[in-house]
Amino acid sequence: MIIDALSLFGLFAVGLMLLFYAFEDVSHWCVLGFAIACLLGSIYGFAQGSWPLGTLGAIWAFIALKRWQKRRLAGKPAS
């Protein structure tokens, strides 16, 4: 069985999502990585013609970006 480039991209995106989600507690940078991976998953969804998957991936990316921003700012001392 031969996998096409789009399927490999989708596997890569979902693999990154899993990896970064597993390590979110380690660093706020992993939350940012998860957000970027969600965006890649969204691109994959739209590229394969599934607008619900693309839309949900974009929403998850937005939520993860907000979580990253909140965690990043929480780690900085108030000035």
Provide structural commentary.
It is a single chain. With 79 residues, the chain is an all-alpha fold. It has one domain. Helix content is 78%, strand content 0%. The chain has helices spanning 5-22, 28-47, 51-74. The chain is elongated. It starts with a helix and ends in a 5-residue tail after the last helix.
Topology:
Layout: H1 5-22, H2 28-47, H3 51-74
Using only C-alpha atoms, the radius of gyration works out to: 14 Å
* Total of DSSP H or I helical runs spanning 4+ residues: 3
Mean pLDDT: 92
Structural class call reads: mainly alpha
Helices and strands, in order, run as HHH
The low-confidence parts are none
- How many domains comprise the coordinates? 1
Overall outline: elongated
- Give the DSSP E fraction (strand runs of 2 or more residues): under 5%
Q: Compute the number of strand runs.
A: 0
For the sheet with most strands, the description reads: none
What percent of residues adopt helix (DSSP H or I)?
over 70%
The termini sit apart by 58 Å
